[in-house]
């Protein structure tokens, strides 16, 4: 059901709102709440729906069955949330100042690379809370209205909606790019029944550049704007449960949670903005921690140290599986072999399999 406020009509100015002025106010309020940018779009996503259905038909979603399960709701906001007329899209930068240099960590094969978005607090609750406050500001101005806030919490084509709201274009790596801020940001949406004026969609500016396609360690970007998730390291280290295909383990290098390579080489990220959100600061030195130290975490330590973080999504078994692969790819060392041997008889068959693979690589 759509969220609405129930206020006494006597407390509210019942005249029809000036929606153009309200849209301007919404953008100001959103900035005051910590969002870097805000845009408003309609709900038509016909071309994006065709792209989505083709992607699903080709099986590029792998084991992410939820991508297919919701059918066309993902591309039809009014089916997901009846009454939706507009979508307010927001974005929030996530790279904190002082974070260890990403390329430096990737070149240090004895360190574990965690995607920069996952180093601090999980953004979902934080952004949903801010969107709720934005809704409260709107209610304070006009009274009751229908809305629902989403931050990766429902079948939403967030990048297409943000593009239509003028916040950036979808690059050849399928990530949204903003010409003034690169691509290191989170997205969130407020579906609403308010007939707000919409913004102009953003135009694309990738040109002839193919750096993101060329750099992908596993060749997951199979063509411009085409991602085979089954080969993507973010999928392999987070979404995939069970064994990682052997031919993709060596290309994973020391990436233990997600991958940023396609963004790291993007020329537009020279304009990337650092965040002022303290909650996104790296925790437990995860912006460059040693693999052998991370591999020694007990399950209790893992759960305690990743509380409130996106890393929890991979689960303890997935965490150990990913680190085992990274240790196998690390330079041969007594420390790596000792660390792997300590888990050679792990209760998880998935962990044991990847440890055996890593030990075989270390002993060559």
From TrEMBL:
Protein name, please?
A: Epoxyqueuosine reductase
> So where's the catalytic machinery, residue-wise?
152 (proton donor)
Q: Where does tRNA bind?
A: 241
Q: Which family does it belong to?
A: Belongs to the QueG family.
Tell where it localizes.
Cytoplasm
- Gene3D superfamilies on file: 3.30.70.20
Q: How is its cofactor bound, per UniProt? A: Binds 2 [4Fe-4S] clusters per monomer.
Q: Partners and quaternary state?
A: Monomer.
What EC identifiers does the entry list? 1.17.99.6
EC supergroup of this enzyme: oxidoreductase
Q: Which PROSITE patterns match?
A: 4FE4S_FER_1, 4FE4S_FER_2
Reported cofactor(s): [4Fe-4S] cluster; cob(II)alamin
**Which GO BP terms, alphabetically?**
tRNA queuosine(34) biosynthetic process
Q: Where does [4Fe-4S] cluster 2 bind?
A: 216, 232, 259, 262
GO terms under cellular component: cytoplasm
Q: What pathway is it annotated to?
A: tRNA modification; tRNA-queuosine biosynthesis
Q: What is its main location?
A: cytoplasm
């Amino acid at each position: 059901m759509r969220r609405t406020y129930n206020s006494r009509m006597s407390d509210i100015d019942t005249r029809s709102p000036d929606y153009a002025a309200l849209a301007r106010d919404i953008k100001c309020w959103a900035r005051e709440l910590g969002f870097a940018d805000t845009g408003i779009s309609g709900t038509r996503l016909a071309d994006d729906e065709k792209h989505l259905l083709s992607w699903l038909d080709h099986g590029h979603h792998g084991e992410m069955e939820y991508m297919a399960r919701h059918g066309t709701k993902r591309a039809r906001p009014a089916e997901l949330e009846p009454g939706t007329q507009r979508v307010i899209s927001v974005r929030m930068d996530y790279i904190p100042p002082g974070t260890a240099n990403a390329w430096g960590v990737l070149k240090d094969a004895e360190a574990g690379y965690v995607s920069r978005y996952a180093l601090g607090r999980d953004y979902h609750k934080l952004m949903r809370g801010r969107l709720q406050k934005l809704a409260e500001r709107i209610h304070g101005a006009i009274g009751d209205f229908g809305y629902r806030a989403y931050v990766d919490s429902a079948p939403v084509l967030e990048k297409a909606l943000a593009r239509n709201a003028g916040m950036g274009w979808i690059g050849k790596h399928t990530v949204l790019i903003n010409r003034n801020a690169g691509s290191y940001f989170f997205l969130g949406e407020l579906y609403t029944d308010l007939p707000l004026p919409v913004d102009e969609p953003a135009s694309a500016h990738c040109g002839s550049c193919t750096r993101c396609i060329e750099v992908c360690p596993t060749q997951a970007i199979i063509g411009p704007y085409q991602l085979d998730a089954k080969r993507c390291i973010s999928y392999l280290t987070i979404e995939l449960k069970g064994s990682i295909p052997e031919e993709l383990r060596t290309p994973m290098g020391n990436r233990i949670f997600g991958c940023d390579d396609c963004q790291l080489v993007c020329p537009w990220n020279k304009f990337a903005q650092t965040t002022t959100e303290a909650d996104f600061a790296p925790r437990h030195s995860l912006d460059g921690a040693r693999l052998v130290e991370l591999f020694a975490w007990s399950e209790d330590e893992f759960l305690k140290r990743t509380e409130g973080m996106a890393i929890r999504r991979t689960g303890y078994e997935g965490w150990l599986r990913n680190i085992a692969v990274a240790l196998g790819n690390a330079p041969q060392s007594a420390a790596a072999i000792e660390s792997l041997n300590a888990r050679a008889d792990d209760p998880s068959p998935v962990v044991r399999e990847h440890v055996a693979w890593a030990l075989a690589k270390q002993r060559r």
